[in-house]
Task: structure prediction
Amino acid sequence: MVSELGGPFAFGLSAFTLIFAATQILAISRLVSDQHAPLWAAIEYFLWQLPSIVVLVIPMAMLLGTLLALGRLSGESEITALKAGGIGLVRIVTPLLAVGFIVSLLALFLQEGVVPFANDRATYLREETIEHVGVFGSGSLAVVSKLPSGGRQLTTSTGYEAATQTLLNVTLIQYDTKNRPVLIVFADRARYAQPTWTFANATEYHFDPDGTTWTQTAPEQQWDIGQKPSQIMQRAANNNPENMSRSQIRDIIASGQLSPAELRTYQTSYQEKLARPFASFVFTLIAVPFGLRPSRGGGTGLGFGLAVAIVFVYFVIASITSAVFTGLGGGPGLAAIGAWIPNALFTGIGARLLGLAAAT
Result:
């Protein structure tokens, strides 16, 4: 059963990837012709965008692969032969369901471990090599973080060099719990070196509670501004949590610098990024009863059309539940419910249809 799935899954992965990558392929020619980008840079930019596309189409490939594999086995009466040999339908399709679950875990790993790095590289290529501007080359950056003492810290800069992970003309201000400044630091540059930032040519101004002020200068000082370079780049890239990993989203949520509307968006994306990869298992389960139904003609075309229809309905429901539960603004609990409703609904439908098929 697993070997029978291999070919159709590879076909589905290639077909859906080409469909989703078509617009990106057209963008390469526009980058080269309109923005005079080097051809190698445009191609590399496209390749770094492929991981996010692959993660999106993996569940669709599992759906189409399962439909085609079971359609062929059913059409050639191999499923009937297995059942005549005393093997139950649930036992027959269990290997496919197991593969669907494993592929879900693989998609989750790619989403969390590979896609954020690839998106960072794509952003760097677009801004630095193709458009020849830094992520914050002509704008300012402001980062707000909480202090262990209960106060807050504000860090601003006039620019950011992505190639060297360096902030330019940095000002760091720490406030106490009564919102009074207790420390101001001015520095020419701040370069990130794991796990924190190193400020160059820094001057500190300390304000004591008794009203006295004292100054200190140093060629290098280390300060934690509350964000890593990857988070800065992701916030610059249209502030889109879809381009981040769950750990990056969690760090930004914990920083406390999001508005209520942004917080709801980030909480929804955080939950959806866990639920979405498991669509591979859900699509495998719901594809089983549809793939077992006898069909006359159609073959691959019929399977592809059915797969597109199921995917369309799934994402329509996912979009509706996401919008509804995000609008309710009930925190991470409601966000999790909205993210998992499509999976729960399609799992229930698939299990019901599989039970009916096994009973016949």
